[in-house]
Amino acid sequence: MAMAISGIDLGSPEAPAAQADLRRLLNESLVLCVRDQKLAPPVFRDAMARFGIPMKRLQLASTPECDEVNIISSEDRDVLGDGKKLVNGASWHTDDSFMREPCSLTMLYGVVIPPSGGDTQFVNMYAVYDALSSEMKRRIDGMKVIHKYQSSRQTNRVTKRTDSEMKAMPEATHPLVRTHPETGRKALYLNANRMEQIVGLDRAESDRLLDELIAHAIRPEFQYRHKWRQGDIVIWDNRCTMHKANADYAEGERRLMHRVIVAGTVPV
Ligand code: SIN
Q: Cα-flanking dihedrals φ and ψ of residue 213, to 5°?
C-alpha cells in the first residue's frame, strides 16, 4: 500500500494528460502521495475535480478563496469549551461514513508541517478483509452496520454540532463488507469512530464483534504511516482504507492542511 510520485505539477496545463495514470496508481496503491505541489486553493480544487465532484463540507472551516477547500489546522481548538487542542480525525475512521453516500476520495495538502509528529496512518482494508478466516467471512457476509456522527461507542473528542448541522448528517446503514465499484475487490468497511451497532445483533454481541474486527484491522502489518513533507498532496480511497491523524506534535507547533473530498456512491 501507498506510493509517492514526484515530477508532476498538478496545477499545470499538462497535468490532465496524466489523469488516467494517476487514477490507476491510486487504485493500485490506495494512498497516493504527489510531492512538491504549490497550489492556491482554487487550483487545488480544480486539480482534485479530475478525480470526482468536490463536495462542500460545511462543518469545517473553508479557505476564503474556495468553499470546497476545507482547513484542518493545529489552531482548531476549544470547540468543546475546555480550551484543549482538538485534532480532527485523531482516531481510526473512514471519512463521512455517517452519510448515505460517503465521499469516495479525500485529498489532503500539507501546507505547513510541524518539524516532528503529525503523521497520518492508513490501513489497507482489502488486506484486512482478505486476512479474515473463512469462518469469519461467512459470519459477517451480508451484515449491516448503523453509522452515526455521534456514535455512543465513540471514545475520542468530537466537535459538538448544532441541531441544524446534525440534520445534515443523518445516520446511515452500510454493509460491513463492501465491494469497491472500480476494482471489484471486497474490503471490510469499518469506522471505529462512527459505528453504532450491527443490525440484528444485540448490543453486547455487536460491540464484541466490532471490537474484534477493529483490533484485527489495525494490526501493524496492514498499516502505512505517512510522514508529511511540505507540498505533499496525499489522495486516499475511503472505500478501501481507514486512517487517523496523530496529535503528537508539540503544543505551539503549526500544522496546516487543505482538504478536498469528492463525491461517492452508496456502499454495496
Ligand atoms: C482527516 O482525518 O481527514 C485528517 C487527517 C490528518 O489531518 O492527518
A: -70, -40
What pTM was computed for the model? 0.93
Atom of ligand 1 at shortest range from CA of 119: 8
- Quick: pLDDT tens for 214-224: 999 999 999 99
| pLDDT tens for each residue of 198-209 | 999 999 999 999
Residue 222 DSSP label: G
- How many residues in total does the chain contain? 268
Q: Which residues in the chain show pLDDT less than 70?
A: 77-86, 155-161, 166
Give residue 210's identity as a one-letter amino acid code.
Answer: L
Nearest to 108 by CA among 165, 39, 174: 39
Using CA positions, which residue lies closest to atom 6 of ligand 1? Answer: 245
- Helix/strand/coil percentages in the chain, nearest 5: 20, 30, 50
**Atom 8, ligand 1: residue with shortest CA distance:** 245
**89 Cβ below 6 A of ligand 1:** yes
